[in-house]
Amino acid sequence: MGDISYASPNLGTVTGITLPDTATVLNVEEYGSSPPTHERTGFPKQGGQSLSYWLQQVRCDPLLDHRTTEELPEEVDTVIIGSGITGSLVAKSHLQIWPEKRIVILEAREFCSGATGRNAGHCKPDQWRHFVKFEKAFGTEQALKILQNEQVTWQALVEYIQGNRVDCDLWIGDTFDVPLDHEVAKIAKEMFDRYVEVGGKVDHIKVTQDPVEAAKVSRIKSAKACYAWPASTLQPWKLTASIMRDNINHGANLQTFTVAQSVVESPSNRQKWVVKTDRGDIACDTVVHATNAYSAAIESSLKGIIAPTPHMCNKVIPPRSWSGSKAIQNSYGVLLPDGGLFSINPRCTADGVVMFGGSNPGQKKLDQYIERHPERCVDDGFARVDDVTKHVRNFVDKEFEGWNAGEIGPGEGFDYSWSGIIGRSADGVPFVGELPDKPGQWICAGHHGHGMARIFTAAPGLVKLMNGETWSATGLPDVYKMTPERLQNIKLPRPRIR
């Protein structure tokens, strides 16, 4: 691949473990991604970034450039850096516990214009597929807790949307995991069986091992099996905006287009920290790092711990032959023979536009390109990247019967693709807790491209820790906890995952 305009990759590499003979299925999140050879980081791109489909839909929304006060406050109790789903949920929980405290949320660009506003719109709890990977890395108990937490997170997200009647195109239905060849299907079954063997909950998963029936159920011609369980799709920006509007109504101060540049010790005895921004300084006692991929740009100790990586999402307008009563009615994770993945969100309760994310072979090339050009690791200006889109197009042409049965007219087909920046965690799971040796600075970041299935419990869990509650009160897996020992172990020499 030459030096081209490119788009965004998927998750990172869980390091420190080796998985013989299972790379085809277990590591679709790490497909094409090796541990970064650079301690790369950077601040959010300030011009020329691509617009996701979600951001295209809200161009007249005043929340995009909202500033609650004309000037930055000089002093507050808490500064939250980042206005995506993490920062918005941290602010919400903070206001519930300490309604009297002053909080400001800083956003470097438009409101919710980072990973939350750029993903493929899935909240898909992993219910089995990565179990063995996590088991080898963290042990059986923690692996079970990780998948259990994803189910709880999905339920919390759905309950919030329904309970608050949030208009965000929520869909609830069966998501399908579909292996495309016999070897992938064999490994998938082995992994599923291992999960069952150790007591994993599977009574809500419908399994079809007969290829003929799997192709019928999934509508994918080469399907060799099909695993189905409940999940959701949604318009993530609208959900986050609803939460933030409520925060503002309850006293939060949102400041968009304000770049947090560093956090330094306060020279004053009154407060602990000073957050330096391009618009001035804010003194505070508490800082929450909710910037995910950009965390290491502000906090240098996180270099090599959380790494930014661009990733692509394709927007496809289905042809008439796959519209109306024939429209796609389920979301997908399509497991490819070479270890890649297509994530498919059909928006079947909204406009029927189909989103293709995941790590296809074109995404692998993008990862390789970023390794050669680490200065572009935070470049979310990639759009309409042919090397990624062509693999989506080839998949649709081959696997969706009748997709090209008629003439594709104007307004149909492969409309657009955009990029977002994933925060790859060095050990594959998020960091939640207080920064070592920096009392009063907290973090919820490193979601590894899977934040929608983790943050709705991780962000409120962080605020419980800020309130002095124990880790067990969060309900989160122990391996998510930010500790000095965890950081030290990550920095030790280790074999890379396969």
TrEMBL record:
Any Pfam family the entry gives: DAO
SUPFAM superfamilies with a match to the protein in the record: FAD/NAD(P)-binding domain (SSF51905)
All residue ranges annotated as the FAD dependent oxidoreductase domain in the record: 77-453
One GO cellular component term noted in the UniProt record for this chain: cytoplasm
Protein name in the entry: FAD dependent oxidoreductase-domain-containing protein
Origin species: Clohesyomyces aquaticus
